[in-house]
Amino acid sequence: MTLRATVAELVREFRASGRIVIVGASLAGLRAAETLRGEGFTGSLTIIGDEPYEPYDRPPLSKQVLKGWVPADHTKLPRMREVDADWRLGVAAVGLDRVTKRVRLADGEEVPYDRLLIATGTRARQWPNPDEAALEGVHTIRSRDDAARLQKEFSESPSRVVVIGAGFIGSEVASVCRELDIPVTVVERGSAPLVGALGGVIGGIAARLQRDHGVDLRCGLGVSSLEGDSGGHVRRACLSDGTVVDADVVVASLGSIRNVEWLEGSGLAAGFWGVGCDAGGRAFDINGVVTDSVFVAGDVARAPHVLYEYQFLAMEHWDNAVFGAEVTAHNMVNLEPHYRPHLLLPGFWSGQFGVNIKSVGVPPFGDEIVFTQGSVEDRRFAAAYGRRGRIVAAVTFDHGKWLEYYARLIERSGPFPPPPSGWDQPADTEPMPAEFPDPRVPTAIPDVVLTGHAPSERTAEFRPRRH
Ligand SMILES: Cc1cc2nc3c(=O)[nH]c(=O)nc-3n(C[C@H](O)[C@H](O)[C@H](O)COP(=O)(O)OP(=O)(O)OC[C@H]3O[C@@H](n4cnc5c(N)ncnc54)[C@H](O)[C@@H]3O)c2cc1C
User: Fold this and answer.
1) Which of 31, 240, 306, 334 is the most exposed place for a label (fewest CB within 10 A)?
2) Are residue 248 and residue 136 in the same domain, yes or no?
3) Quick check: CB of 299 below 6 Å from ligand 1?
4) H or E segment at 321?
5) Is the CB of 360 under 6 A from ligand 1?
6) What is the pLDDT of residues 402-430, one digit of tens each?
7) Do residues 86 and 46 make contact, with C-beta atoms less than 8 angstroms apart?
8) pLDDT reported for residue 154
9) Which of 104, 116, 259, 295 to mutate to test the pocket of ligand 1 (most atoms within 8 A of CB)?
């Protein structure tokens, strides 16, 4: 038998045999399962998901579903192909034993695996005071049930909605309120909406956009407490400047938390920012050593990216979940020389206040911004972000057709400011500070520390920080 025939035989055997378990039955989990079967994996495939539903799509939840255009239960993800799998829906994974290679479920069952994919994504951060969070009318939005509940409230014409946090989802919720003619107050601790994702220059434009659409936008302020009536329904939000806003619906849009708790004690590099893995989706153990049988994809993964100085990127974007899952699943059923890297340029879109906002690259990686096309006044423009003389990201407002041009420049490590596209150039093309929040401000993010002195004892450990 020739060497080529032997390798082909090995690959065939690898694909035909073994048990693959996927934990997380959503976008990344489904696309990974489809890829595994598409690449010829014929072994046993088990998909574990704690939600009772078949995989559904989340982006419409804060858009078409809230507006009442699409019922929450009509968001099922289209299937790219048949997936022959044992679906265990409505049951959470609660533990992982990497020595015996078993996933422990909440109902006590243990599911053995040869290769495991972690695709448990993120969940919404709840309002921190549990009594206030339990008031009727206080919402978060991550699942289709969340969206259905909030849509019902919106359909009953609330007197005012308070949105806490003006990131993408909070801003989309506020936009839907205005479309439905519901009075809305947005309270944002930062200096402007979208400031963490796109910086203060674009944040300022987003702030004007919100106010022009009738949003009562309060920046640089927090909500200190929520108060309810005797029936346990929320009635007002008390702000950090002493003012009070009457409202009968509150949406806490405070960002997300990675679903990694079930991995405690597994020895994987799982922490605040997700599960560390290489660019091929292979999970790292807590010491930063790559594992052979555990893989990660989607919102819960964080991997080094060649274009961003090999920093670990944690991305909560739809495209990242799809392409990351496809690459990782490919690597799960192929031999090492055929591994693929997940080198997708990060990108996202958002629709709010009639504007289609799109971005490519990693804007917070940049410290400067320059408007390159269109007109800020017309809210139809492109802008590029730069760092140390090279372009690292771009954002467009109603100018998405140009994003590809910037994506190619970013991929080639093009110069900043970028060469003019030759079309629709604004009068002022001077770069300016992008105004991202100060990264030196201490956070509550846990640190990884090294413990032990002798080489045999020396290991890494996560330590929560308290500030
Ligand atoms: C309201 C909303 C709007 C969005 N809009 C956009 C947008 O416009 N553009 C964009 O690019 N992205 C958007 N996103 C983000 C996008 O939806 C996510 O990037 C994508 O869903 C990630 O897919 P995932 O499979 O990695 O994770 P998830 O979709 O979070 O799925 C993880 C699944 O695992 C389950 N799970 C968690 N823990 C366990 C456990 N222990 N055992 C079993 N199952 C578990 C979860 O319940 C969930 O079903 C939006 C997200 C939301 C919530």
Assistant:
1) 306
2) yes
3) yes
4) helix 318-332
5) no
6) 999 999 999 999 999 998 877 788 877 89
7) yes
8) 98
9) 259
311 and 248 in one domain?
A: no
**Do 440 and 386 fall within a single domain?**
yes
Number of folded domains that form the chain:
3
Question: Do both 261 and 119 map to the same domain?
Answer: yes
65 domain-assigned = no
Question: In Å, how far from its chain's centre is CA 45?
Answer: 26
**pLDDT for 427:** 77
* Most ligand 1 atoms within 8 A of CB, residue of 318, 359, 403 to mutate: 318
CB 429 within 8 A of CB 370: yes
| Structural domain harbouring 227 | 126-254
- Going from the C-alpha of 175 to that of each of 67, 210, 213, 355, 357, the distances in angstroms are 10, 8, 8, 10, 13
Q: Is residue 94 part of a domain?
A: yes
| Residues ≥6 apart with Cβ < 8 Å to 316 | 122, 256, 299
Q: Which two tokens stand for residue 356?
A: 């289609």
Ligand 1 mean position, distance from CA 123 (Å): 7
The answer to whether position 467 is within a domain reads no
Q: Are 399 and 374 in contact (CB under 8 A)?
A: yes
Answer yes or no: is the C-beta of 48 below 6 A from any ligand 1 atom. Answer: yes
Please list the ranges in the chain whose pLDDT falls under 50.
Answer: 442-446, 466-467
203 neighbors 192 (Cβ within 8 angstroms): yes
Residues 47 and 96 in one domain: yes
Q: What is the pLDDT of residue 466?
A: 47
DSSP characters over 164-207: E--SHHHHHHHHHHHHTT--EEEEESSSSTTHHHHHHHHHHHHH
Domain identity same for 392 and 314:
no
Ligand 1 proximity of 410 Cβ (cutoff 6 Å): no
CATH code: domain of residue 43: 3.50.50.60
Q: Is the CB of 24 under 6 A from ligand 1?
A: yes
Please tell me if the CB atom of residue 346 comes closer than 6 angstroms to any atom of ligand 1.
no
Ligand 1 site, residue 120, Cβ cutoff 6 A: yes
